Automatic annotation (TrEMBL):
Integral membrane bound transporter domain: residues covered: 41-162
Pfam families membership: FUSC_2 (PF13515)
Membrane topology term: Multi-pass membrane protein
Entry keyword set: Membrane, Transmembrane, Transmembrane helix
Protein name: Membrane protein-like protein
GO annotations of cellular component type: membrane
Compartments reported by the entry: Membrane
Transmembrane segments: 52-69, 76-93, 99-117, 129-146, 152-168
UniProt organism field: Gordonia bronchialis (strain ATCC 25592 / DSM 43247 / BCRC 13721 / JCM 3198 / KCTC 3076 / NBRC 16047 / NCTC 10667) (Rhodococcus bronchialis)
Primary localization class, coarse: membrane
Length: 367
């Protein structure tokens, strides 16, 4: 059944597949937000006897969000911003009354206080919106404003508890993100090898465009890696996964650098093809081998502990490519081909670091 669904999924248009994949990856955070919102409302009404505690579910949803990163930070900023906005708004409106110019002043004042106290992006927005709420809907001087601050605290705490007790697997998203980036560059390397072998400018340009289009995925990967580290710190269920999350997170910079180096390689290759300059077959073979290197690193990312390929398998393949990419290969070459090999060797260092090697050891392998 799973294979049938996968085959059907692959027949769908690419934009629709992307939307379905995005929804699938967000199902757990959406469930967390929904459960946290309902629980926060119930606690505020049943335990604290607050009337219409709308801030509680709002705070729970904002503190969790769909992004895994900085959830604790968001919760603190949310509660802090609401508290600042309510206090500033209550003090100001109780003295001068409510009206158009009062709203202008109280929102500016609350946001200014929030910015002065903290540089987070969420706290001034929450302070301003809470101050506006006090100035327009909540009677100053009563307990309603205080109740709203408590509701925000309830929602923030419930959000953190739901995130800790019903967490997203901190490794799954990060692994999937990294594997997706590596798969994209793998395909780009295949296009590049074909383009260099046939002199097809369109193939080389397609490789360059594919590599250029990875930045959004890389940013998502970094965000999910930060979120994974946070989940592994907060959730008792994943305390034992901290070391694994750290190892996965350590690949973020090497993957990013590898993609950047590949873009440079593709640009240099495009220039050579456009000028009609041949590239020696040994160099094209190395570029083709890079596709295999990206693929084994992708498989390594998706493999569970104890499964193959592992870091040792990936390193073994990369060492084989390094032996082909010796500096002597371009001893009699022109400057552009020498620069192309230099970028390939730099890329190999990044890939060996993705496979777990230290930078110094990876550089030493090139000698």
């Amino acid at each position: 059944m799973t294979s049938r669904l996968r085959k059907y999924f692959n027949t769908l248009p690419a934009p629709l597949r992307q939307r379905i994949r995005r929804l699938w990856l967000s199902l757990v955070p959406i469930t967390q937000c929904a459960l946290a919102a309902g629980t926060a409302w119930w606690v505020a009404v049943q335990v604290f006897d607050h009337e219409l505690p709308f801030f509680a579910p709002i705070a729970a949803v904002i503190s969790l969000g769909l992004s895994l990163s900085q959830r604790w930070r968001r919760s603190v900023e949310l509660v802090g911003g609401v508290t600042i906005g309510i206090l500033v708004g209550d003090l100001f409106i109780s003295q001068v009354g409510s009206g158009t110019w009062q709203i202008v002043v109280v929102v500016a004042l609350a946001m200014a206080v929030a910015v002065f106290l903290d540089d987070g992006p969420l706290i001034p927005m929450q302070a301003g919106s809470s101050a506006a709420l006090v100035a327009t809907l909540l009677p100053p001087g009563g307990i309603a404003g205080f109740h709203r601050a408590i509701d925000a605290l309830i929602g923030g705490v419930i959000g953190i508890l739901v995130g800790a007790l019903l967490p997203v697997n901190p490794a799954s998203r990060a692994r999937r993100d990294a594997a997706g980036v590596l798969a994209t560059v793998r395909d780009a390397a295949r296009h590049l090898a074909v383009g260099l072998r046939t002199g097809d400018e369109k193939e080389v340009f397609a490789a360059l465009e594919a590599a250029r289009g990875t930045q959004g995925a890389i940013n998502t990967m970094r965000s999910d890696m930060r979120g994974g580290r946070e989940v592994s710190r907060v959730s008792p269920l994943y305390w034992g996964s901290r070391m694994r999350i750290q190892r996965i997170s350590a690949t973020a910079d090497p993957i990013d650098n590898a993609v950047r180096n590949f873009r440079i390689i593709a640009r240099r290759a495009l220039g050579k093809v456009q000028r009609g300059e041949p590239v020696r077959p040994e160099m094209i073979e190395i570029v083709s081998d890079l596709a295999g290197a990206f693929e084994i690193l992708r498989e390594m990312m998706m493999a569970d502990p104890g499964e193959e390929p592992d870091e040792t398998d990936a390193t073994r393949l990369l060492r084989t490519i390094v032996r082909k990419a010796r500096a002597e290969l371009v001893a009699d070459a022109d400057l552009s081909e020498t620069a192309l090999l230099a970028e390939i060797r730099s890329l190999l260092v990044d890939l060996m670091m993705v496979a777990g090697m230290r930078r110094a050891s990876a550089i030493a392998t090139l000698r």
